Amino acid sequence: MFDDFLTGLVLVDxxxxxxxxxxxxRRLMPMAQPGSDxxxxxxxxxxxxxxxxxxxxxxxxxxxxxxxxxxxELRMYSIKDSGVVDKVYVLVREE
Length: 95
Hints:
By secondary structure, this protein is of the alpha+beta class. The chain has two helices and six strands; from the N terminus they run E-E-H-H-E-E-E-E. Strands 2-1-6-5-4-3 form a six-stranded antiparallel β-sheet. The relative contact order is 0.22.
């Protein structure tokens, strides 16, 4: 079900490792595989006026996909009382 979302969806554990990335996320970040460091994957494919070490801490970070110049907003949602997955990050394309 999550693989067919029209926005990029990445589930990240408390260590910052990717547990799941849907099709859109994998298209934007081909290296986004389970066990990969999420911030490293973002940093290789996106740029921002904000330093990369702050991207995951902000509620809504504006990112530019370097390959096409498309603008995305990185949103973070916490999952409470879950086992492995701690946060869900969503890459929403700005129209």
